[in-house]
Amino acid sequence: MERNLAYVEESVVEDEVLLDARERATELGAAPVPASVGALLSMYAQMLGARSVVEVGTGAGVSGLWLLDGMREDGTLTTIDSEPEHQRAAKEAFRTAEIAPARTRLINGRALDVLPRLADGAYDLVFVDASPMEHPLYVEQGVRLLREGGAFILNNALLGGRVPDQSQRDPATQAVRAATRAIAENPELTSVLIPIGDGLLCASRG
Q1: Could you give the CA distance from residue 88 to residue 25 in angstroms, rounded to a whole number?
Q2: Burial 184-201 (b: 16+ CB within 10 A, else e)
Q3: Which residues sit opposite 146 in a β-bridge?
Q4: What three-state secondary structure class fits 69?
Q5: Which of 2, 139, 142, 158 could be joined to 126 by an S-S link, Cβ 3.0–4.6 Å?
Q6: Which fold has domain 1-205?
Q7: Is the pLDDT of residue 203 over 80?
Q8: What are the distances in angstroms from CA 133 to CA 8, 130, 136, 171, 189?
Q9: Is the pLDDT of residue 65 over 90?
Q10: Where are the domains of the chain?
């Protein structure tokens, strides 16, 4: 299984801009999404014809670059992070990638304070890469933001294998399980858990 996952990661090639952003992320301690996750984000954005995307957890811009790669050229990425240093690094990555300034809206703040101010049903895709302890709250807010046919994607859905291990009962694991249940039990959503990176829980709103 590990050999298969390693092969999956090696099959995705990143350009110099992404590699530089990944290096900055590591330096800042802002763990970037693996290349396989980034490629999947780009594919989702492309298949949705995404024009309006929300990202929770800007980091150094790695996932944002992948999302922008798949979005429409007139699309806008709204990306939220509480760390100003992360967003400065992301701005540099977007600038280096020659992303037009109008295509990104970087908001510095706590995502759970920002998300309630965003419009219901106005977004094609919501991607969350943030604290597992708050996953249930992100599900509640994220699904509200989606248009019909939109996609909600939650990173770190396996927590290093702790989530499927029923002997693990720590608060973060319990919170991720609660978020997974909330998605599975929502009649408006169709979901799948994809075992790349540290688990990617994907749901579409019907």
Answers
A1: 11
A2: eebeebeeebeebbbbbb
A3: 123
A4: helix
A5: 142
A6: Rossmann fold (3.40.50)
A7: yes
A8: 28, 9, 8, 7, 22
A9: yes
A10: 1-205
